[in-house]
Amino acid sequence: MIQNIQNQFRSSGRVFGLSKEAQPIVIAFACIVVLLLIGSLYSSSFLSPTYLVQQLRVASFLGVIATGSMIIILLGHIDLSVPWVLTTGAMMASAVAAMGAVGEVLAIPAGLACGAMLGLISGIGVAYLRLPAMIVTLAVNTIAQGLMVTYTGGFSPDDSASDAMRGLSTGSLLFGLPNAILVWTVVGVLAWFLLSKTTFGRKTYAIGNTESAVYLSGVNLQRHLLIAFALAGALSAFAGILLAGYAGKAAQSMGDAYLLPAIASVVLGGTSILGGRGNYLGTIAGVILITLLQSILSVMQMPEFGRQFIFGTVIITMLLIYGREKRRR
Length: 329
Description:
Elements: H1 2-12, H2 22-42, H3 49-74, H4 82-97, H5 101-127, H6 133-152, H7 163-170, E1 172-174, E2 177-178, H8 179-197, H9 199-209, H10 211-216, H11 221-247, H12 259-268, H13 280-299, H14 304-322
Antiparallel strand pairs: 1-2
């Protein structure tokens, strides 16, 4: 009889009544509680409302990036162009903002357009040339880096963020909450709706599960990939715009620190790195978890290489877990 019960659990994928999709989300939130307790041992202010709100503000930037990363990972791909797409969006928005009153209005749309264009290039390589996404996006990242280094001459740009960029990142309009948190909330709600309530979302999950079957069913696979990569590029650029507003200006290599944390946040939240399964609530939990982990490591004065080692270990561990699942192509 015990054997029969065990077989039922294996077949349903449930542990303690939780579905396979819910398990990593619950674990991620449990880890958040543990990190909060550990942090409180290092600093008495770690659990203060002021500190927690500040951590949510920091998490907001990573959350916007992770939203785009999740869309690409659900498709079964990896986007490695995040660092310099983010930087390009920030630099171009700041450059347009320096053009006067009209530039102030067009700064944010210009930055978003640059990110979407770079994402579109990645999408063309993946959708039409059938090249591996890791190779294409890495190439796009290098191209964007070359363009920005040429534009700035290798120095930190002098252009400052627009008032709107500063307001989105540092202002406070509702209940005293930083605008950055509200922006992530809006992005998150739209992403949840897009992935769970629209045809686009259903196609995204289906492609991640069985790409060949989706193609044979008549879905325009190329167009879907183009839209997904363009959207991810725009979100990375938007995060760069927010970061530039938070710091007052863009900077060289400002996106380098966000690539691994973004991927780690998504996979920690239970999104299968092979594609086809994931929940945006899990990504929220993963972003908060990574942000708190970074904060604790900073308090412990962990060097940067140590942090990158931890993020890499997390990704490899999740890949080993999800890599045992069968994926149909």
